[in-house]
Amino acid sequence: MNKTYAMTGGATGIGAAIKTQLRELGHTVIVVDIKSADIIADLSTEEGCTAAVKQVEQLAPDGLDGFIPCAGLGPAARPASLVTDVNYFGAKLTTIALQPLLAKKKGAVVMISSNSAPMAQHDEELLQALAADDRDGASQLVNARANGVQDAYAGSKLALTRWMRASTPEFAGLGIRINAVAPGITTTPLTDAAKQDENVAKAMADFAAAVPSGREGTPSEIADAVLFLLSEQASFCFGCVFFVDGGSDALLRPNDF
Ligand code: NAD
What we know:
- There is one protein chain.
- The protein is an alpha/beta fold.
- 50% of the residues lie in helices and 13% in strands.
- Strand 1 (4-8), helix 1 and strand 2 (28-33) form a beta-alpha-beta unit.
- Helix 5 (124-131) crosses helix 7 (148-173) and helix 6 runs antiparallel to helix 7.
- Bound molecules: nicotinamide-adenine-dinucleotide (NAD).
- The site of nicotinamide-adenine-dinucleotide has 28 residues, from helix 1, helix 3 and helix 8.
């Protein structure tokens, strides 16, 4: 049966693989991105998110079977606050705003977390600013730090994942399943940009070689897990964080799950 999905970040990388796989199955996919998309919007701002959601509402008035807020920026982005703006606020605002369309069809949401999310566990100041929707406070914190962009990345993914889990009962009450996929290092333009720095490239290559898989993931391997969580086969999955990371989380946190 043809289903209607909306997603963000479908222009390249993991999002492009999700879009392609869904379209190959005959589904309609409405893509929001800053480039090469059905709806062009800058999701780093509240106005951009609102404008994007309005256009999705026009294109899918009968509702959505699913939503994947996949747009994200990596450690090469500057300033660091762009990362919290897109990865946390952009994903959360669009998901909340699309709740009524998702409720109409009892749809499923798959957020994109990261294997780096647990690294922010002790960054309480940033996590609290994000959870409180204090965009300016979060921006000031990460922009003032030497390692701000890494902190912004891990913090935005942990805060988003915590929000997803805390929101699971509310979404379930509307008939919507919400889950997350947490990718490990995956070969995409995001990681290619980070590898422009020789030291980062070496650290990433060493890390990928050390994880149980011994290699980076591919966008289609991440998309496979997203499509599973969207599907009827995942009908009892609510609030899961599905690590698709070559075993890196198991390697780094064997006792935590
Ligand atoms: P990518 O750069 O290929 O894709 C990111 C997409 O987001 C692009 O299409 C880009 O145009 C879009 N985007 C960026 N800024 C935007 C903005 N302001 N407004 C609208 N769209 C915007 O990177 P990717 O690796 O495929 O990343 C996809 C998601 O996966 C991101 O959320 C990322 O954090 C996450 N992720 C990636 C990895 C990895 O190793 N590649 C690991 C863990 C999580």
